[in-house]
């Protein structure tokens, strides 16, 4: 009998890993898509109409002028641009809970969905006879690798259903209740999210794997007829399940359009080279969407999620080798297929991890047991299990502490947080209030990221675009992106679409236009938050300049807008910097450094502000004091992060200025 001490260590390891996963699910609502999901869902609750077109997007082409459509989209007989809304049921659930309990209800829903995912992953691993320590390690790895996609979106509903289907397929036998459950889940899946195609692929992999095993066994001597007949029965039932799942996929409001949508999307992205490692100048508008980037390159390369995913890929490789040697063909097919899916783009890492982890764990556990028994290591195996569980528990506990203290996120410079409610830094509630009170009856121009939340939280205001890229032709997104090129293009858009207010998240994409508008004679800054700036022309509002800004109050407001004050202050500094308000920006960066002296990006940006102010001062008075302060800032940034390229470049520039 296994010693009780080891048994408890294994249970503690699994519980610690599970707690880590749940802590990662406790986060404020921060999705840029939240607004349009609630808007679509509430439309159904109010009218019974499932939204598959958008009248609140005022940049849609005239009904008579058809242009290139997005994947699966079409123009109806009335000339309206329509799209198959694969998320409609998820949106209805989200909107219903929002009405019942607001942000707290949605945060609780997010937590429950993630709990269900990991509970199903554990159930699948137990059905596959995975050792407790291996299961705990997989839960820990999967939680870290997939945490970026825990934010409440329809795809999380899809993750739950996909994990439930995998669990049903993982039994030693395929029973008739399994058949009924898989078909019912498929109907639910196809109405919640477009990932439903993955369930068909997994069912096919299990069917093909058992078919090959069946044929192998019929050719080998000494196999019992009973075992062979079991495999034949499973193959028949899996074939029936696959047929019924395909048929069930048509049970949605758009029938065949939804069924073809995932395939059309993949072909569309391949044709337009969308899944790149970074934004490609002159590329397709969809190539600007970060979740479509390649998963292990660019800005995502050096994050804990990527490192955990690398380990998970190694685990999958070991599992695939064991599956091949032991002729577990279904496991091999699932692992190879899901690794390919996960590597296709960043957003697919999470569903890939949820499927890869239990199957790889099953293969590694079975292979490990066989090796230990052949080598006579059965006694040592118990010690190894206890040691592994202890290590997993320690790692999970350490990660849990960093999650609660926010350093888990801040170290990777992520916007996610441990907490509850709505993230005021990412969902512009204060700016939306200003728009509702001052421009609720007008059209408002927004950038892509803020569009959906401004539309909904400002009371249904008309916007040029929303973050649902299926809701309009790619030409609309190109129009919005083109306005960032300068004031002339922006004023042309203002004349064409008759708007007087613009809301921007002041980031790298919008920075050139934000600076030009701040310097223009027509557009005025009328209100400001840590991350967002509102412009209005001379017809609305009063102008706010840098001298009008109460920097102390602005810093305090920014500090309270996020549970990591240094991060929020850095964002506020960037907003001021993009406006050309270097003095205010330098104070914000100084405040960020005061909160976190090791914040090398803030040191660099403070130096950049001082350098620009110092250059003007040298021209006026010849005083190089600010340039020397900037020099010290850049040197400090390099001392904190030796390979930080921007600080090195800026230091070279200021050294030349001082030398001259």
Descriptive account of the structure:
There is one protein chain. With 660 residues, this protein is mainly α. The protein folds into three domains: 4-26 and 33-50 and 85-410, no CATH class; 422-544, 3-Layer(aba) Sandwich (Rossmann fold); 547-660, Serine Threonine Protein Phosphatase 5, Tetratricopeptide repeat, CATH 1.25.40.10. 64% of the residues lie in helices and 3% in strands. It has helices at 4-25, 34-47, 88-127, 132-146, 154-169, 176-190, 196-219, 225-248, 256-271, 304-325, 329-342, 349-375, 378-404, 407-410, 429-438, 448-457, 474-482, 487-497, 511-519, 551-559, 565-579, 582-595, 600-621, 625-640, 645-659, and strands at residues 74-75, 81-82, 444-446, 501-505, 524-528, 532-536. A four-stranded mixed sheet has the order 3-4-6-5, sandwiched between helices. A two-stranded antiparallel sheet has the order 1-2. A hairpin with a 3-residue loop joins strand 5 (524-528) and strand 6 (532-536). Helix 1 runs parallel beside helix 4 (132-146), helix 7 (196-219) runs antiparallel to helix 8 and helix 23 runs parallel beside helix 25 (645-659). It is globular, with a radius of gyration of 28 Å. The model is unreliable at 1-6 (pLDDT under 50).
